[in-house]
Amino acid sequence: MAPRSSTRRTSVRFSFWPTSSAGARVFESGLGSGALTAALVRAVGPTGRVTGYEIRQDFAERAQRNVEGFLGPDLPLEVEVRDCYEGIGVDDLDRVLLDLPEPWRVVGHAEQSLHPGGILLSYLPTIGQVTRLREALEESAFGMADTVEVLQRHWHVEGTSVRPDHRMVAHTGFLTHARLLGGAARGPGDGTLSES
Ligand SMILES: C[S@@+](CC[C@H](N)C(=O)[O-])C[C@H]1O[C@@H](n2cnc3c(N)ncnc32)[C@H](O)[C@@H]1O
């Protein structure tokens, strides 16, 4: 089984790809350790905003503590103990990031909360979950859906012996993203579409 820390690191690293830039308004759920939250808060900067819902109070408190321990106080971050399957309740979002077991239950809420052109991004470990998410996206106002598998292949580099490592953490998860269609699309911060 892949070490959990490696999975989390990969989720953080790759979640930046079509996600968050300075000034973006981002929704994230769930928070877990807050590792991804910290990366997002740093990416959006003081002109952006990260709203995070975590269903477990102990995890929410730990995530907030970890983020503040890493980045300091007075951050553009709001953490709430809430079930995001019940709704998001925040409008005009640029990004919705989901790292939880049933993201298809959030697709309808994300339709209401993202502005046109906004992006939903989900990190999932198994392809069965991806299939359910893609089906929900197919029946929604999202388009341009895409799924990539995250693979890490470390290399052994020693003199003339340059080859992939014999042992490695290979599969770590699938990233699925889709853009909300309809209306006049715009990007985070400065009104231009960026990435993906
Ligand atoms: C895989 S962890 C997230 C890890 C996180 N991205 C990190 O960087 O550490 C999944 C989290 O989702 C939370 N969760 C599960 N279902 C939820 C829901 N319906 N609403 C809010 N949080 C939920 C869990 O309590 C757990 O903390």
- What is the CA-CA span between the terminal residues? 31 Å
Label the structural class: alpha/beta
CATH superfamily: Vaccinia Virus protein VP39
**Number of distinct helices:** 5
**What is the N-to-C order of secondary-structure elements (H for helix, E for strand)?**
HEHEHEEHEHEEEE
Work out the count of structural domains. 1
Q: Strands of the largest sheet, in order across it?
A: 3-2-1-4-5-9-6
Describe this structure in words.
There is one protein chain. Helix content is 29%, strand content 31%. It has 196 residues and is α/β, with parallel strands linked by helices. The protein has a seven-stranded mixed β-sheet, sandwiched between helices. Helix 2 (35-44) packs across helix 3. The longest helix is centred in the first third of the chain and has 15 residues, at 57-71. 36% of the residues are buried. Residues 190-196 have low confidence and may be disordered. It binds S-adenosylmethionine. The site of S-adenosylmethionine has 19 residues, from helix 1, helix 2 and strand 2. Residues 8, 11, 29-33, 35-36, 53-56, 59, 83-85, 99-100 line the site of S-adenosylmethionine (SAM).
